[in-house]
Design a protein that fits this description.
This protein has helices spanning 6-12, 71-80, 112-121, 139-142, 163-172, 175-181, 252-269; strands at residues 21-22, 25-26, 38-43, 46-51, 55-59, 87-91, 95-98, 103-106, 131-134, 158-162, 188-191, 196-198, 201-205, 214-220, 223-229, 273-275, 283-288, 293-297. The chain is α+β, with helices and mostly antiparallel strands. It binds zinc ion.
């Protein structure tokens, strides 16, 4: 099925489904609104594709975001931003970066099937991935590393993640670590702040969400972009209000400081960012507000060539 895109399928009118998909939807999504799963653009000579590897709706976002502000304030901010307070949609968006020689995947979604379904829509087979980079080792980022049968999803890949991050989870001996990360240990290289992943891709310490969480700076032909991972996990309740505490953050004070530092930098540089949990396609800009920031979704800025 490689090279046979969904658009061609629709034009041909054959409705030939990709494996595990019904007319472009993942299993269990029949009858739900259609949503694109891939978005591609160029950054200098890098080709970047964001991949929606999963999305779900969860109740009570006020118990996750803004846990240090009153329910009234949470409600007021939500109303101002046209957001319901009882439910929120979560997005899980790994990023694929094609350089001259390598095909790099940043984070791997909740499970192997969702990840490979999104890759198939981008016309990529798992065995084509040469390098997997993990921002951190939470389940929604490492879930796609191994199949349900316990085999590596990406047969030809090597792996990188932060050294502090890895050591933390190894010591915890968590179930997720044992199932998804430990089997690949021999092939994992460990990153420190400022390390070069590849030419043009640099690791940045962004600790707090987890002890060794990392962001990544991309630079190609004088164009820059930051992959912020889970530095900020909602475009309003976290990015717009970076001091709001988030239940998912391991060290809430450090996470908030990191969030403010990175967002301040991205806003000042006026360069785009990709945030793993931003609304798909997860690509946008950060504008400074009086006491926080504003998420400005990208439109056509990166598709003018
Ligand atoms: Zn996450």
């Amino acid at each position: 099925m490689q090279g046979f895109t969904r658009r061609q399928a629709l034009i041909a009118g054959t409705a030939a489904p990709l494996a595990g998909m019904i007319g472009g939807m993942a299993k269990g999504e029949e009858g739900r609104p259609a949503m694109a799963r891939t978005s591609r653009f160029k950054l200098g000579s890098m080709e970047i594709t964001t991949l929606l590897a999963g999305t779900d709706v969860r109740p009570d976002p006020g118990k996750i975001f803004g846990t240090n502000v009153s329910p009234e304030e949470f409600k007021q901010v939500s109303i101002e931003n046209f957001l319901p307070v009882d439910r929120a949609r979560f997005y899980y968006t790994p990023t694929l970066v094609r350089t001259g020689e390598e095909l790099v995947l940043f984070d791997t979604g909740l499970d192997a099937e969702s990840m490979t379904t999104a890759l198939a829509e981008a016309g990529v087979r798992p065995d084509e991935i040469t390098l997997i980079v993990l921002t951190h080792l939470h389940r929604d980022h490492v879930g796609g590393l191994m199949t349900d049968a316990g085999a590596p999803t990406f047969a030809n890949a090597r792996y990188m993640t932060g050294a502090i991050e890895h050591n933390h989870w190894q010591q915890q001996d968590s179930e997720v670590y044992r199932a998804k990360v430990a089997p690949l240990l021999e092939k994992i290289e460990f990153l420190e702040d400022g390390d070069e992943v590849l030419s043009g891709i640099t690791a940045l310490a962004a600790f707090g969400h987890t002890p060794g969480h990392m962001a990544f700076h991309l630079d190609s032909d004088d164009q820059q972009l930051t992959l912020t991972g889970d530095t900020t996990n909602h475009y309003v309740w976290s990015l717009a209000y970076p001091e709001w505490e988030v239940a998912f953050d391991f060290d809430k004070v450090e996470a908030s400081k990191t969030r403010q530092r990175l967002l301040q930098q991205i806003a000042a540089e006026r360069t785009p960012m990709i945030g793993y949990h931003m609304p798909f396609p997860a690509l946008g800009y950060v504008a400074q507000r009086e006491d926080g920031y504003q998420w400005v979704p990208a439109s056509y800025q990166l598709s003018l060539d």
